[in-house]
């Protein structure tokens, strides 16, 4: 049997999933992600929070911090795309963000709360948009043009992906 790729517990993102009839589902997944993250980390001791979700991967703690960090960038990019004509957005070095010292010292309640507020705020924005708004785009210097339809689908998947990293670690370890 081929070794399971622990990086993609729910599979890779499928671009064809970014379409209008899936939009509401994606918004609901964005709203549900913080509660799913909380459930995935409930009761973990400090030692377990500091365990990599796969060999050589981020610790559970780093994954928890990564979610609001990543989704804050996405939220800002979306607002830029809504208010400017095809803005070029600023990538960020997610690996180095995850290595910053505060990731190890900030109680997880803080990123968990931040993720909750952010996803709620984002869902309110998404529900206020017109169908035409979802075809607005930004330009990513490496990935090219990205539509808001794609952003919603990507981040709905992205939240579920990282929650599944934690859930699958717990399952494998019998935690
Ligand atoms: Ni990520």
**Distance N to C terminus:** 25 Å
The multimeric state of the shown protein is: single chain
CATH superfamily: dinb family like domain
Overall pLDDT level: 96
Provide the succession of SSEs: HHHHHHEEH
Please mark out the parts with pLDDT under 50 across 5 or more consecutive residues, or reply none: none
Could you give a short account of the major beta sheet?
2 strands, antiparallel
Structural class: mainly alpha
What percent of residues adopt helix (DSSP H or I)? 55-70%
Could you tell me the number of beta strands? Answer: 2
Shape: globular
CATH architecture: Up-down Bundle
Q: Give the cofactors and ligands.
A: nickel (II) ion
User: How many discrete domains?
Assistant: 1
| Number of contiguous helices | 7
What's the SSE blueprint?
Blueprint: H1 23-41, H2 46-49, H3 60-83, H4 94-99, H5 102-105, H6 109-128, E1 137-140, E2 144-147, H7 148-173
Antiparallel strand pairs: 1-2
The chain binds nickel (II) ion.
Nickel (II) ion (NI) binds at residues 66, 70, 158, 162.
Describe this structure in words.
A hairpin with a 3-residue loop joins strand 1 (137-140) and strand 2. The protein has 7 helices and 2 strands, in the order H-H-H-H-H-H-E-E-H. It has one domain (24-173): Four Helix Bundle (Hemerythrin (Met), subunit A) (Up-down Bundle), CATH 1.20.120. Helix content is 59%, strand content 5%. The model has no long low-confidence stretch (mean pLDDT 96). By secondary structure, the protein is mainly alpha-helical. The protein has a two-stranded antiparallel ribbon. Helix 1 runs antiparallel to helix 6, helix 3 runs parallel beside helix 6 (109-128) and helix 3 (60-83) packs antiparallel against helix 7. It binds nickel (II) ion (NI). Nickel (II) ion binds at residues 66, 70, 158, 162.
């Amino acid at each position: 049997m081929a070794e399971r790729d622990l990086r993609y517990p729910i599979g890779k993102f499928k671009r064809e999933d970014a379409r209008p009839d899936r939009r509401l589902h994606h918004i609901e997944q964005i709203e549900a992600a913080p509660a799913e993250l909380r459930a995935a980390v409930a009761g973990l001791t400090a030692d377990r929070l500091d365990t990599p979700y796969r060999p050589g991967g981020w610790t559970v703690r780093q994954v928890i911090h990564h979610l609001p960090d990543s989704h804050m960038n996405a939220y800002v990019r979306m607002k830029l795309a809504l208010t400017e004509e095809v803005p070029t957005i600023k990538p960020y070095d997610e690996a180095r963000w995850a290595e910053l010292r505060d990731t190890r010292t900030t109680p997880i309640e803080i990123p968990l709360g931040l993720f909750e507020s952010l996803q709620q705020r984002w869902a309110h924005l998404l529900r206020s948009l017109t169908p035409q708004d979802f075809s607005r785009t930004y330009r990513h210097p490496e990935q090219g043009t990205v539509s808001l339809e794609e952003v919603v689908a990507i981040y709905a998947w992205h939240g579920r992906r990282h929650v599944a990293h934690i859930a699958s670690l717990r399952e494998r370890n019998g935690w």
